[in-house]
Amino acid sequence: MTLPVRIEKARVLIEALPYMRRFEGKTFVIKYGGHAMVEESLKACFAQDVILLRQVGINPVVVHGGGPQIGQTMKKMGLVPHFIDGQRVTDQETVNVVEMVLAGKVNKDIVNLINQHGGRAAGVSGKDGPTILARKRTHTRPGPDTEAPEIIDLGWVGDVQRIDTGLLELFKQSDIIPVVAPVGVGANGETFNINADAVAGHVAMALQAEKLILLTDVAGVLDEGGTLISQLFPEQASKMLREGVISGGMIPKVEICRRAMEAGVQATHIIDGRVEHALLLEVFTDRGIGTLLRRA
Hints:
A hairpin with a 5-residue loop joins β11 and β12. The chain has helices at 3-23, 40-55, 67-76, 92-116, 166-172, 196-207, 234-242, 250-262, 278-283; strands at 27-32, 59-64, 83-84, 87-88, 121-125, 132-136, 139-142, 149-152, 158-163, 177-181, 183-185, 191-193, 211-216, 231-232, 267-272, 291-294. The chain has a single domain (24-294), classed as Carbamate kinase (3-Layer(aba) Sandwich), CATH 3.40.1160.10. It is built from nine helices and 16 strands. The chain is globular. By secondary structure, the protein is of the alpha/beta class. Helices cover 40% and strands 23% of the residues.
């Protein structure tokens, strides 16, 4: 390694130092999904990033998705996925697959990934504790013939009713990184499939996290011309939502970020998980790489 390269590495560490000091003892809730969960090099970078966060005194809580893995498993089992308005219809057979894939295979793969890279992680289903208490989602859309909305039954799809932080607080007192599967439990013990972004947002709110970070497969929030917006305030986000600048799959992500900040989360980030070491670049550098949503 040449001297200029070594000097540059030292500069990177110096830039990161004030952020490490500022966030020591704070909680970061990280939604892990997309390409970062699939490509081997990105998986290794993610594991290294969360381990480093823990090593410098930050408490990372990982909430993961797993939609593609669910689809692949259903296909192998001869089951046909069915979606309404972009949401997976989850009958009893499907919810069994969802729980098996998310709380079993995917969750344990992530736990093993972090452990193999030198960290200590443990898997948590929403049923453990229980941690994620859920209720059945009521999904409506305009009726075809009347003014009354049409009620759509999505099956065992749920919304977060409450997060019980007891189990997660125990992990906070150790060096173990919790990895949370977005499977909730109802009042009568029912299993619910819940959107992972929503779970991450509610976990961040319940823990009063310093940061909520959503890893995505896009650069972040883009303006009308397709240029990345590095910093966004809630009132600006509301205007962009009304005007349709923020659209499609970015809408629920921005909405959960806004809700989290209203509930006390200090800052939220939407970042590109396809970038190696995206987490460290976002939180330990002056410019970051994605979109930071914060209070004015």
